[in-house]
Amino acid sequence: MPHSILALSTRESRRVAASRVVSLQYLLRRKLGLAGAAILVVIAGAAVVGPGLIPHNPYVQDIEARLKPPGYAVAGSALSVLGTDQLGRDILARILQGARVSIAIAFCAVVLSAALGTGLGLAAGYYGAFLDVVVMRLADLQMAFPFILLSLAILGALGPSIVNMIVVFVVTGWPVYARTIRGSLLTLKHGTLVESALAIGLPEWRILSTYILLTCLDPLIVLASFEVGRVILLESSLSFLGLGIQPPTPSWGNMVADGRDYISTAWWLITFPGLALMLTVFSVNAVGDVLREYLDPKQRRS
User: Fold this and answer.
1) Residue 192: its H or E element
2) At what angle do helices 2-27 and 268-295 cross, to 10 degrees?
3) Total number of domains in the chain
4) Distance between CA atoms of 138 and 130, rounded to whole angstroms?
5) Which of 80, 88, 188, 225 lies at 20 to 30 Å from 250 by C-alpha?
6) What CATH number does the domain containing 133 carry?
7) CA 17 to chain CA centroid, nearest Å
8) Share of residues in the chain with pLDDT > 90 (%)
9) d(C-alpha 59, C-alpha 114), whole Å
């Protein structure tokens, strides 16, 4: 019996590998997805090493250089490529620093919410009964509750901070992972591999980790890729409303909020942070589309 399980698993792995080689060749022709991946690499690289290469400090104020247009420079100082804000701080330096903050928050929130949701979804789908009812009703309640109201309640009680924002995203993000993993598990639970593993007495933790979780990784990876863009957008929205990243720490959201009063006289204050946010979310979603087509050939477009 163990040999038959291994043979089934090996044949399935070979079939999936062959399908992915074909789909990878197909995806290389998807120029939009490749462009999104290239943009994302550039943005991530700029967020990691960019602040160290820019001569300007994103926190240093210079009132004499306030609201200077892109390309501004004075004798003895470095060029301000994207101009300065209402306090004389360099826009490019603040955008790069804001990218670090946004990407770090999105990464932590997605990893934690995926871990929590996957764990609860596995437990609910595998053991069923009362635990399944409790977890799914909690997920339904969470998904029915407006995000902005929950954010106001949590951040109002705990105060706006990076840690509290991550808590908000984890609390609001875990249900979608739990429902996804539970739905996939219900179709695998009575499959040949799982029933054979139970018949030979394999422990439940090994069945869940080897025969179920690894099989369900593909939809989870696709879902997490889209969630990164959603969290970045939500973080910027909360920062714009004053509930997220607090000054003087730069965030694309609070940079747009600071520049809205100067939109008619200093357009660059909101234009460049807005473009950075738009390009980042676009590239993340484009990569998510590519991953979805690569991991599930049924999603291919002609």
Assistant:
1) helix 192-199
2) 130
3) 1
4) 12
5) 225
6) 1.10.3720.10
7) 26
8) 25
9) 34
pLDDT class of 113 with cuts at 50, 70, 90:
very high
pLDDT of residue 147: 83
Q: With beta carbons less than 8 A apart as the criterion, state whether 269 and 283 touch.
A: no
Tokens encoding 14: 């070979």
pTM over 0.85: no
Q: What 8-state DSSP symbol labels residue 188?
A: H
- Greatest Cα pair distance, the chain, in angstroms, is 80
Residue position matching structure tokens 């995926």: 114
Torsional sign, CA 125, 131, 137, 142: negative
Backbone angles phi, psi at 71, to 5 degrees: 85, 10
Instruction: Write out the two tokens for 64.
Output: 């004499």
Amino acid at 170: V
Owning domain of residue 81: 2-299
Amino acid at 12: E
Contact (CB, 8 A) for 102 and 252: yes
